[in-house]
């Protein structure tokens, strides 16, 4: 087994040989089939997002269970997990007992562990997706996925797709209503497809023509550049992280509408809205960060029925040993995801 260790911003990953672990109660050892590069990893390696180093990055993973600990594990849809099952791994592990977990917020657990965001010394080498295997901790939401679901769609289930379910839910009842989605990365395209499937008329704003075309294929009614003036919508979803899009969200939201902020997860974007715009506009503002196990269950159900074209999601797939090349390509490509696949079987 190997893991690729990130030394910190500006450094190159190095391979680390890993002895096979014995899973503890509630744990699973999963052989990685495919990991996809999330934008948060690009922010981390560039130094724009704090990340403990050295560590093993990567958190969008699909793979097969090769070993289980002594306790039974069930997935987010209540299925008992067995060796040989193909699973999508959630991005966090929660304790299940703290005040936040008891409130139904396990994704904000007081003792939260996040895959691909932990120091090597604390979490060990099989704690991120850029490895041949991941040691899945107790308290991790995971989903058994069918063998015919393409890996390009299965790997992001535990990050982008489940977050898109949470985002779409935060927008409320959108049937017959106008929704503006800022950003046509994978999160924006998935949210667009989900909202359009619920009867919303979706306008997508993104600077890249190729991504705008993908959004249209996903169900958007209209797609335009980020500076285009669009009528205020019943819901405005800011999924790009662009400061200007955050600032313009109130003006893009109709009276009584909802603003959903989910794209800004790094420091640096300040809210400079006028409070009276929110008060007089009767606006609801919702922040979305990560998701609940129920959202992951919804993501799997949606992916099994929707089946976006793989060509719209995944670009190049690199061998794990070429991880730095994969990250470099992901930082400069308009593809929604770049993949990493271990050579070890």
Description of the molecule:
It is a single chain. This protein is of the alpha/beta class and 345 residues long. The chain has two domains: 184 residues, Medium-chain alcohol dehydrogenases, catalytic domain (Quinone Oxidoreductase, Chain A, domain 1, Alpha-Beta Complex), CATH 3.90.180.10; 126 residues, Rossmann fold (3-Layer(aba) Sandwich). It is built from twelve helices and 17 strands. The strands form four sheets. Strands 3, 4, 5, 8, 9, 16 and 17 form a seven-stranded mixed β-sheet that branches. α7 links the parallel β11 and β12. α5 packs across α6 and α5 packs across α10. The radius of gyration is 20 Å and the shape is globular. The termini are close together. The relative contact order is 0.16.
Descriptive tags:
single chain, alpha/beta, Quinone Oxidoreductase, Chain A, domain 1, Rossmann fold, 2 domains, seven-stranded mixed sheet, six-stranded parallel sheet, 17 strands
The CATH H-level superfamily of the largest domain is Medium-chain alcohol dehydrogenases, catalytic domain
The helix count comes to 12
- In CATH terms, what is the architecture of the largest domain? Alpha-Beta Complex
Measured on Cα atoms, how large is the radius of gyration? 20 Å
Major beta-sheet overview: 7 strands, mixed
What is the domain total for the residues?
2
**Poorly predicted runs:** none
Average the pLDDT over all residues and give the rounded result. 95
Q: What's the end-to-end separation, in Å?
A: 9 Å
**Coarse shape:** globular
CATH class of the largest domain: Alpha Beta
The oligomerization state is: single chain
* Fraction of residues in H or I helices: 25-40%
Strands, count: 17
CATH topology of the largest domain, what is it called?
A: Quinone Oxidoreductase, Chain A, domain 1
Class derived from helix and strand content: alpha/beta
Q: How much strand?
A: 15-25%
String of helices and strands: EEEHEEEHEHEEHHEHEHEEHEHEHHEHE
């Amino acid at each position: 087994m190997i893991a690729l260790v990130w030394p910190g911003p500006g450094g190159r990953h190095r391979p680390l040989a890993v002895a096979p672990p014995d899973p503890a109660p509630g744990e699973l050892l999963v052989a990685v089939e495919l990991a996809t590069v999330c934008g948060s990893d690009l922010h981390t390696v560039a130094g724009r997002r704090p990340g403990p180093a050295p560590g093993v990055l990567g958190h969008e993973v699909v793979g097969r269970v090769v070993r289980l600990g002594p306790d039974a594990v069930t997935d987010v849809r209540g299925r008992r997990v067995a060796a040989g099952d193909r699973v999508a791994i959630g991005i966090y592990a929660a304790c299940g007992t703290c005040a936040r977990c008891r409130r139904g917020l396990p994704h904000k657990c007081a003792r939260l562990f996040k895959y691909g965001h932990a120091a090597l010394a604390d979490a060990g080498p099989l704690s991120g997706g850029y490895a041949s295997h991941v040691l899945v901790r107790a308290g991790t939401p995971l989903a058994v996925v069918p063998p015919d679901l393409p890996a390009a769609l299965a790997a992001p289930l535990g990050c982008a797709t489940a977050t898109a379910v949470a985002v779409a839910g935060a927008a409320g009842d959108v049937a017959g209503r106008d929704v503006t989605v800022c950003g046509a990365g994978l999160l924006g395209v998935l949210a667009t497809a989900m909202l359009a499937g619920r009867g919303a008329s979706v306008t997508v704003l993104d600077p890249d023509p190729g991504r705008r075309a993908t959004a249209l294929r996903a169900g958007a009614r209209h797609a335009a550049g980020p500076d285009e003036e669009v009528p205020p919508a019943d819901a405005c979803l800011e999924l790009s992280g662009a400061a200007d899009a955050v600032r313009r969200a109130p003006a893009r939201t109709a009276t009584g509408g909802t603003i959903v902020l989910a794209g800004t997860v790094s420091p640096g974007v300040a809210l400079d809205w006028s409070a009276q715009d929110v008060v007089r506009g009767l606006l609801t503002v919702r922040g979305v960060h990560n998701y609940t196990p129920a959202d992951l269950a919804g993501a799997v159900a949606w992916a099994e029925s929707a089946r976006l074209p793989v060509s719209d999601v995944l670009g190049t797939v690199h061998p794990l040993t070429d991880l730095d090349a994969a990250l470099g390509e992901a930082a400069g490509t308009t593809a929604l995801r770049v993949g990493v696949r271990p050579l070890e079987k």
